[in-house]
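Annex B. Sample input.
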Amino acid sequence: MAMYLDEDRVRGLLRWDQLIAAIEKALADFSLGRVLQPVRDMLTIEEGKRYLGIMPAVAGDAMGAKLVSFFPQNAATGMPTHMAMIVLFSSQTGEPLAVMDGRLITEMRTAAVSAAATKLLAAPDSRVLALLGSGVQAGAHLQALAQVRSFAEVRVWSRTADHAKRFARQHQIEAMPAEAAVRGADVVVTATNALEPIIKGAWLKPGAHVNAVGSPRPAWRELDDNAMANPLIVDSREAVLKESGDVILSNAPIYAEIGEIFAGRKKAPVAATTVFKSVGLAIEDVAAAKLVYSIASGDQ
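Annex B, continued. Sample output.
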């Protein structure tokens, strides 16, 4: 019988250091052509309000699929905007191994991807972090990025000022306007469902690194054209050219996939101001689920 793991069980098993390492390997394998996966099929139930994503992937030792709902309207109700289930199979026999809640995995693997990119692309002495957005991903990124950089100052902005103030109190950081949060920041995270840019390139300090993980639709944007004119690294060329308004509407050239840098195929542009655009890949979910299953079954 396939193992079932609910969110509490997943939470008790998944650790940032192991997850970041698993994500680095999965993305390197992806860019080396060792992963079989289509671009996510996102079904639009109601534009701007209700979506269902279908995300299968197969790698050498992992095979599975995630079903994920994306309901931006839930942000006003207190319910998660993303909820998911992941099914994991043996890639050798096809045997179902596990069914697990995917909400937390989606939350953590997204931030783990950003942490892995930040480790490569942000200045080693980065001390100031700016979070644009005060939801689930802001909290996850605060935890994940602390694994790879030591921040002396953290700033937060949200389109709803009360949300930013609440997040700031909870994490003992400072809430401030977007421009003030971004100016002088070494690392910036954008994790919103903005339809129009919330960051101007003119605000970014030379050598800053941006992790752009929000606005996952082809007509939505978080960064203006000036910000997107910096060296652009992505999780998947094919995926961002289908799903990311930041990339599509700016027509920004792509320097590399992050997996190409992990695999040593491309050099990290370490001294430059960099933008990492992440839309989320099925192999990230399957790799995270495989890690959870291996720990739960005693293989790790």
